[in-house]
DNA sequence: TAGTCGAAAGAGAACGATCGTTGTCGTTTA
DNA sequence: TAAACGACAACGATCGTTCTCTTTCGACTA
């Protein structure tokens, strides 16, 4: 018979993750020690280790959540805008990412997560799943724009989806490194590159 | 009066950096210890520390070289192809990057460097310089394509340059994470997106 | 309903391991 | 032969983690 409810445990876990996110966004995964994390959360080591088996588990939890966030944002925006132009859908995705980044530093965590994916098999697998899943889903969206002649019919929908992902990933990278203001004009460029009217191919 | 020539010292330094690159590409900057580096180079700590003041200096040297490589490749390709189509120039840049990655794991080091740029001010400054310099140079190239009606005249050349950088950065990211085969069809997509003929805008 | 008991939560000191770095001493070469 | 190179042991610091002890709170009992 547990002393506390499951709701309490979940809330506590989330509280620790929030503190970890702040600390990690400030100094990076590796440069942030567990003691830094304890200080940021205002808790002792014993308290934190009751909810996470180790530092790796904290990192993985944060990265997996970050993956889920980014994936969900891209999916939501591109699908709901399937009737507008391709450029407008892309611009909307970018603007959503930017807004989220301003409030919780999404991009910084994301960039760090990509590097971690190269080393940690668990994170690597999660990213591969995100990217390949996103690619096939975006391929369907892209195919729609190919049929309506706003994207060239020549290349495969999958290859165009890869370019789409590249744009979003590269945008997040610049967002993290240069800040939101430096890339504020990207949405306009995307809308102009792929407007509603037909494009040569 | 030094025991050896300056040429010897330079060669030795480069030898150590090559070993470090291999070790870092395999395990990442942080997960690779100096002892790992000594083993990879087949040298003692004393030998390495005679050429580098510390681990940070090794990392910075490798990252700065990586920045120089990527910047040079993008500049060379986009400038020499200024008479072809924008898509062809982009595809050529991507193919050059892919070839280099196959031979020395360029993309993996690059992705790690981006993360390090968030934390180390020296690396961060180098990257900001690369990105902003590249952006203004690419803006001139892009402006050329805007004048010849192969890119829409509406958006600023700088904003289109940011999108161009995003594509290249995002491509490198996918190259590192998914491997060359998974993104082999990207060049074709780029050529199809921006062919020689005029594009609506 | 008040009191008691047991288990979970949390604090905090401390430990073992590892890492980056240094210092010493032999070796090599202009 | 003097100075740089290089090997190697070892050091201090730091980090992730554990262990012990106290505190807290829900459940059961009278």
TrEMBL record, chains A, B:
One of its GO terms (molecular function) is DNA binding. It comes from Kribbella rubisoli. This is TetR family transcriptional regulator. PANTHER family: TRANSCRIPTIONAL REGULATORY PROTEIN (PTHR47506:SF7). The keyword Acyltransferase does not apply. Residues 33-52 bind DNA. Signal peptide: none annotated. Residues 10-70 form the HTH tetR-type domain. The keyword Transcription applies. Keywords: DNA-binding, Repressor, Transcription, Transcription regulation. Pfam families: TetR_C_6, TetR_N.
